[in-house]
Amino acid sequence: MYFKPILLAISIALTPQASLAAGGGGDTTGVPEPTETTKKCKKSKVWSEKKKRCVKPGNASLSEDTLYEAVREYAYAGQYDNAQTILRVMQDQSDDRVLTYWGFTHRKLGNADLAMTFYERAISLNPDNLLSRSYMGQAHVEAGDTYLAWVQLQEIRTRGGMGSWPEQSLAKAIQSGKTYNY
Fold first, then answer.
1. Contacts of 10 by beta carbon, 8 Å cutoff, 6+ apart
2. How much is the pTM?
3. DSSP calls for 68-124
4. Per-residue pLDDT tens over the stretch 44-91
5. Which of the given ranges, 5-19, 21-35, 37-51, 151-165, has the highest pLDDT on average?
6. Max CA distance (Å), the chain
7. Sign of the CA dihedral 23, 165, 163, 126?
């Protein structure tokens, strides 16, 4: 079918080429800034602002949001095992953000099929999870299926993600054929 490559080329041509600069702590803002968690903590520990030291991820002083940010930080630092250790102690294993990072870490550890299962579960719970869609699309790029990646890119755009970090990173991956190791 000739229309798929043509649609892909048109889509990429219309993609804004904004920078993929590192952003703040939200899901759609880019790579998280390093904090004390990855600067000072070892063995999956998380920095506790309350205690001003590294603590085990199951420590009651840590909120789910703090744990989630630590997961993101470890994942983007390439410390996938540390990220998964924290994911294991998170209370709500059906949270679409948690599922997204289970997918991300498994994909980076070479478990592509398992990663896709997590992305699919995250998206079924929250179809507007742009980050999970972007990571799923990047998994498709890695597998050589740019059409399925393009489908996720269109979903991101349709769901209000035009210009967002998930949209930009997936568009760049489709265009270059390369995904990102942060």
1. none
2. 0.81
3. HHHHHHHHHTT-HHHHHHHHHH-S-TT-HHHHHHHHHHHHHTT-HHHHHHHHHHHHH
4. 999 988 889 899 998 878 999 999 999 999 999 999 999 999 999 999
5. 151-165
6. 60
7. negative
